[in-house]
Each structure stands twice: as C-alpha cells, then as structure tokens.
Design goal:
This protein has helices at residues 7-15, 56-63, 98-112, 114-117, 123-126, 130-133, 195-198, 294-320, and strands spanning 19-24, 30-35, 46-51, 66-71, 84-94, 135-148, 158-159, 202-208, 214-224, 229-232, 244-253, 260-272, 275-285. With 321 residues, the protein is α+β, with helices and mostly antiparallel strands. Strands 1, 2, 3, 4, 5, 6 and 7 form a seven-stranded antiparallel sheet that branches.
C-alpha cells in the first residue's frame, strides 16, 4: 500500500499528467520517457503503459525490474507548488491479456485526459491503430521514495521509506556494487539537441545508482555547442553521481494534453571541470503530437507509424506462435 505516504505525495501520483519513467537496458543504459501515470490514493502500485508497437520500455522492465518514476512537471495537474517526487520501484510487466488492457486503457485515459480522449477515433476505427491501442501495462511497486519540497532540486531530498515495509516483497539487500562505465566512442551531435537551449531551461537527468536502481532528477541544463556537451546544473544535491551511462530527457505538453513533445539524449556522464556534462552518443525522438494541424502531425510521424505497425505485427505473431 502507498497509504502511509504523505497526502501531498499521493496527490502528485494521482494528479500529475506525466511522469518520467526510467528503465535500464541490458547495457546498463538508463532510458527515460514521459508517460501518463495511473494511480488512486492508497493503491499498492503506480501503473504506466506503452503501445504494442513500441514495447521497449516493457521489454527492458521485464528484463530488469528495477525502475524509477520521477514526478517533476506539474503542468496541467492543478497543484500549486507541489514537491518533486522520485519513486524507485520494482516493475511487473502485464501483457497477459491485451484485450483487457486495451479496454482498461480506453477507460482510464478518458478519465485522466478527457480533452485528449475527445480527439481519439471512434471504436470501430481503433483496430486500424492496434499498434497504439493494444497496450502493455507496467505496474510499479514502490521501494523507495524521495521528496524535494517545492520542486527545489538544490535542496537535500527527504527519504520517505520508513513506513514502506508493507509494500516490499524481498527488498534488494545486495551490496552496492553496480557500475556501468562510460561507453566511450565518438560524439553524436544532433541538431535537435539545440532545442534544449531554445525551448527548455531544465531537463530530466537519469543515471543508475550504485544499488542498480535508476535515479532521476530535473536539473538546470546548458548546451555547449562548441564542445558538443550538455552541461548539468552544479547545485543539485542528493544525487548518487558517478561517471557512466546517463540519459537527458526533455518534454513538454499543453495543460490538457492537446499536444506533447519529447525526446531524449543518451550518452556518457563525465566530470567536466568543477561540474558534470553529458557527452551525447544518440538522440531518440519519441512518439510526439506537436502543436499544429492533424496533417502536419501525420507527416511528422508517418515513418514512425510504419515502424510501429511492423513491430506490433511481429509482437502479435510472437504471442500467437
């Protein structure tokens, strides 16, 4: 149960439109995407979901159930000055009944995001978009919760795990010996990285803690175009920082979720003078619905949709086989 957590934390879980969900792949690379959380106060877990056509989040969580959910963007929540909350937890991937998951997603998404649901196609057309509407759920049971009052990343976080024993099922007590060293290799500077300078003054930095759980925090960022680096704000405390694989995720959305944008940059977190920087190796754009017309959105996503359909067919064939 999460009922022992402070009410303000439960409100964040319940009312935030997005949470930054981090998994760790087989290379030890943390990967962060914004997703919609589904939670009711007192529930034993927080649920997120992904489409059958882009199942990597679920695959990585099934392979390594140590995941994290960061609640750092209150846009559209209706909350004033909420805390930033990081929940490290254990994932249970639910793809046992895709039909039931689709029905649950239709119901929950309509309740959570009514403005977005109003623009969805009628039910008889949704079969053509099975890559999106056939859903895989990931249920995250809390293991450890951090709280930054007022969302202040420069303050020492509060650790809220003293009353979480009832939700733990064999908490990981192994020694802190995890380490994914920097991957090295050449830089990969994508022009879109410069959006971080134009559009975002902060982004979510994710790395892997010594105990193997992802750790995420929203931090100030700067783009060093000359050296091809993303500089991380120096005044964030309470971060188990060490050189290694890391991810910087940027996203934004309209308060009622009429549009949303997102991408992330994977790379090496390295010591840079007195601070830290991400040396980028790969930029990945997510499934986005940016501001604009339906036609422009389709054009922007056409190639991704073809890929998602192909992946969904392969996933269905694997399951039926």
């Amino acid at each position: 149960m999460t009922a022992t957590l402070p009410e303000e934390v439960q409100q964040v879980f319940d009312r935030f439109i997005t949470t930054e969900f981090t998994t760790v792949d087989k290379r030890g690379q943390p990967i962060t995407w914004p997703v919609t959380p589904y939670y009711s106060p007192g529930d034993h877990c927080i649920s997120v979901t992904t489409g059958l056509g882009y199942p990597k989040k679920a695959r990585d969580a099934a392979s390594n159930p140590k995941v994290a959910l960061l609640f750092s963007d209150p846009t559209g929540s209706g909350l004033t000055g909420p805390p930033m909350v990081l929940m490290q937890g254990t994932a249970d991937v639910d793809d046992r009944d895709l039909t039931a998951n689709r029905e649950r997603y239709s119901r929950e998404s309509a309740e959570k995001l009514p403005a977005a649901a109003a623009r969805q196609p009628p039910d008889f057309l949704k079969d053509r978009f099975g890559w999106y509407y056939k859903r895989i759920y990931v249920h995250v049971r809390p293991e450890r919760v951090y709280l930054w009052p007022g969302g202040d990343a420069t303050a020492e976080p509060q650790l809220l795990d003293s009353h979480m024993e009832e939700v733990r099922s064999g908490h990981d007590e192994e020694p802190d010996d995890y380490r994914a060293p920097p991957g090295g290799g050449g830089e990969a500077w994508d022009p879109r990285i410069e959006e971080l300078a134009r559009r975002y003054d902060s982004a979510v930095l994710s790395l892997v803690s010594p105990d193997g759980f992802p750790f995420s925090i929203r931090a100030p960022i700067e783009v060093d175009r000359d050296r091809h680096r993303i500089r991380i704000g120096e005044h964030c405390v309470g971060i188990p920082v060490q050189p290694g694989l890391a991810c910087v995720c940027a996203h934004d959305h309209e308060p009622s979720f009429k549009w949303q944008r997102n991408f992330h940059v994977r790379g090496d977190l390295v010591r840079d003078g007195d601070g830290w920087s991400l040396v980028p190796h790969k930029l990945v754009g997510g499934f986005e619905l940016p501001p604009g017309s339906a036609l422009s959105r389709f054009a922007a996503n056409a190639r991704k949709i073809r890929r998602f359909r192909k992946t969904a067919k392969a996933e269905e064939a694997r399951r039926s086989g």
